[in-house]
Amino acid sequence: MSDPIDVDAAKKWLDAVPGGEIGKRLDRSWQDFAAFSDPVVTIYGSYDTGKSSLLRRLLIELGQEVPTWLTISARHETFEVNEIRAAGCVLRDTPGFVSDGTDARAKMNTGRASDAIALTDVGIVVVPPQLATAEYPVLRELVQQDWVPESLWFVISRFDEAGIDPDDDPDGYRALGEHKERELRAALSLDGSVPVYVVCQDFAQMAGTERNPDPTVWDESRSWDGISELLAAISALGSAWWPGIRQAAAQRFWRSSVQQVLQQLRKELTAHLENAAVSDEGGQRRASWLAQLDMLTRASEADLRGRVSAAVSDAVDSPDPAQSFAQALKTSLGAWHAACERDIDKLLRSVGDAVATERTRPDWQRFEEMAATLRHEPPGPDAILDDELTYAPVVRQVGDAVLNALRHYEQTRGLKATSPTPSGVGVTPSVDRMAAASAGIASREVVDFGSGVVHALRSTSHVER
C-alpha cells in the first residue's frame, strides 16, 4: 500500500492545472459517489466477457426483476453505466473496455468503464475462460492501484466454455478451474487477498437472451456453477460493510486522478517540446533563406551599378552618347534581369523543396495541427504564389525608374542644347547628367528593388509557414 494522499492538497494541485478547476469537477463526481449509503460494486471487464449475463443471474437468484436496460446479446449491447440496488449493495453494469481501441465507440465505452471502476468501493473484474492476454496490461495497471483486502474481486466467467463438460467430467472441470485460477493469479500477480471466483452463469445458455427467465432453468447447474459462492460474498458485503472500504476508495480515486493528470501533462510537455524544436528549426531555416536573399540583393545591386557604369563609360566616347547609353543600358538591364530572375528562381525552388520535404515529416504535421488550433482554423491547402506576379512589380519598378531617368536626361539635353557651350568641354555636361541619372537609379531604385524582393520573399515565407 502506498502512503496516504492528502486529498485537500490533491484538489488544490488539480485546480492549479491549466484547463479549468479540474479539482472542483472531480470533487463533484466524488460527492455524487459518496452520497451512496450502500457499498458500490462495479462489474468491469472487456467486451463480451459475460458481465451482463452475470448480473442477470445474480438478480434472478435474489428474486429481483431484471431492468430493461440490461440486455443479453452476443453483440456489443452495453453502452452506458447502469446501476441497481440488490443484496444491500449498488450493483453497476459497465460497457466493455477495448484495449488499444481507436474508433470513437471503443474510446467512449472504455472511458465510461474506466470512470466507473475509478469510483467504486468494490470492483469485480470479469474475464473469459481463455484469460485473453490482450487485456492484461489494462488489468495489471488496475491491480496496482491501492485496493484494500477484499475490495477487488475476479470472476472467471462462462466456464462451461473452457473445454470440459461439467456433467461428463466434474472432477476434470473442477481441476481445470483451479488451474485457470493459478494461471490468472500468476499473470496478474494476485495475492491471497484478492478472491477469484470460477462461475458458469448460464450453463449451455439455457436462459439465452431472455431478460427474466425462470430461476429453475439453472437448478441442475446450481450445485457446481459457482454462483452461490459469489452471491454469498456480495450479500455479506451488503449486510456488514465497513467504512474503511469507502475511505480506501477516496484514496484510490484521488491518487489515480492526480496520476492521470500528471501523465497527461507529461505527454503534453513532450508534444510542446517537439513543437518548439520544429519551430526553432524552421526559424533557423527561414533566417538562412533571408540571408541568402540579402546576399542576392547586394550582389544584384553591385552588378547593376557595374553595368550602368560600364554603359556610361561606353557612351562617353560615342558620337551619340544618349543613343549609345540607351542601347547599352537596354542590353545590360536585360541580361541583369535574366541573371537576377535565375538566382531568385533557384532560391525559391530550394525553399519550396525544403518546405515540401518538411511537411512530410510527422513532427512537422503535428506542429501544423497545433498552429492551426492556435489560429482557431483548420489546416488549409498550401497557398501557391505565382513567382511572376510576386516579382514582376519589383522588376517593373526598376524598369520605370530607368525610363524616367532617360526621359529626364533627354529633357535636360534639349534645354542645354540651346545654350552656348565652352570649347573643349562639349560632352562633359551630358556625361555628367548621365552619370547623375545612373547614380540615381543605382542608389535609389536598386535599394527599392532589394527591399521589394525581401518583402516578397518574406510574404512567401509567411504564407508557407
TrEMBL record:
Source organism, top-level taxon: Bacteria
Protein's name in the database: G domain-containing protein
Organism this protein belongs to: Mycolicibacterium gilvum (strain PYR-GCK)
SUPFAM superfamilies with a match to the protein in the record: P-loop containing nucleoside triphosphate hydrolases
Domain G: 41-130
Annotated InterPro entries: GTP-bd, P-loop_NTPase
GO molecular function: GTP binding
